[in-house]
Fold this sequence. Notes:
Strand order of the largest sheet: 16-13-15-14-18-19-17-20
Number of helices: 14
Amino acid sequence: MSATSSPEPTKVREHLYRVGEQQIGREAPPQPTVTSGDGPPGFPSSIRVDTITFTDWSQYISVPDVQIARVVDADDVVAVCNWAATSGYTVRASGKNHNWSPLLLAHDTAAGAKVMLVDTAKLDSCSFENSDGNALATFGPGITLADASAYLEGLDNGGAVDAPGFAFPQLPAPGNLTLGGALAIGAHGTVVPLDGSDEDAGMMGCLSNLITSFEAVVTDPTGTDPDTYALRRFERTDEDAAAFLVHLGRAFITSVTMVVEPNYYLELTCLFPEVTDLFSAPGSTNDSQFASLLDTYGRVELLWFPYNSVSFVQCNKRQATRIDPQVKGPYNYPWMNDIGPWKNAAIKAALQFDPKLTPDFTLGERAIAELHQKGVVLNGTARDLEIYLEDTTLRVTLFGWALQIQRGEVQAVAHQFFEQLSTMLDNARQAGSYPINAAAEIRCTTVDTSTGLPWSDAAPAALAVTNSVDPSDASLDTVIWLNVGTITGTPGSNEFYTELEAWIIDTWGKDTPNRLRPEWSKAWAYSDAGPWTNTDTLQMIRESFDQSTNSPYTFDWAAKTLAGYDRANLFRSPLLDSLFATG
């Protein structure tokens, strides 16, 4: 199905801009307005309240007249929560809102609904200590991943390694994510251990598994004043802490301490292998198979634009020493980060006006990547090469599921997924439909373990996708993440994702214990009405977290534990109500 020719790279985008301009005009889309005013009755007078139009990353959700409290410290958050508990409001922590799933607000939230967002931007503190040989960094939830990793890199590691300072073991690609938001959904990058590597496999699951302690605004389920919200510190070894490590917005964390490691260097090589090699069936021998690249580099991110015969694969490999020249910082793909609001709107309008432009568009996107990156090798520190996406990139919806597997199953899963996706795209094109117009993405991490943490028996992040479904089976060591993107509102995309999801569940979701889980920040539980609407899939998701090893950290346990620390049921949204089955 994949075309082999490549259009002139920059001319494709230029043509789409011209087509889109005819549909929407030359003006950029209006930016959301912010107005200041008095807060609701009884609201703490020392805390500013603005009214905004809330818009999520993919532009699927846009809600006018939403109130947001501009807090400056954790005490302000406590005050907002105690006000809300007696005022009939819910409370939602709001960072950069770079999220696909509506954990904060539903797309049909009424203007002026009794929801108080809490802006975490000023909760951006950072500090560091070396405790009993453990490098521990403490952050406020509003700090971005770019700023947190820059802070770590600027520290003195005492000569432990050649690279400057400290680092997270791996990072997601967007730098403008708040750490609190990333931890709430168990964010991850891409990394698996290499043979002979000194990398710690215990630090390669989700970022939330690095947490050693945290502070949260809670009520006390067993205290003498159970209706009052207050700050409480939790240690990772506390019985209930496991429910908070990935809380999906069902809690409000105000400070978090995490294990970090001495910084390291990476070398980035961008490859453009033929998809027939990259996704070939297990048993065939070639160095371009996805599993082979994973064995060679350890950190591999595969991006396949539909209708292309080649794929764009980013391969980062850890380096023992510095290799010059080094890049000057993160965001080394300017060609990927030059799509502002008007260009996004123009591309969307053009593809919706003439969907048959889709193959040229996806071929052009791959060709632009190849023009700029083929044969280019970049060297830098961890943050410089792992962070590459800015807010000025193509805004898409991302469908996302993850599967826990043995490392040796990676190629089989990638092959099956690609074959199904290709067949479905072929069928859609033959019917004159182009529901997918952005990249499919595959990455791998390990499952979470307590290796690398100060305690060998640390409780897991109960609701993390990377929380092992069977800790007694060491062979289930890998998580493969499967994403498919399309511009929000593309005709036929809901039906396409519904069919793809049904196939994924039928193919990998019938095992016991169930190894298939949704990527919380993405789109899942599809019906023809859209994502997050399939009640049968929501039930399957809840059940998928019930492990086979009689672990107490089930989905129901986490839901009840979080509810117990939120007496007034403040930290909720329609999706969380459906997922957690709370009233």
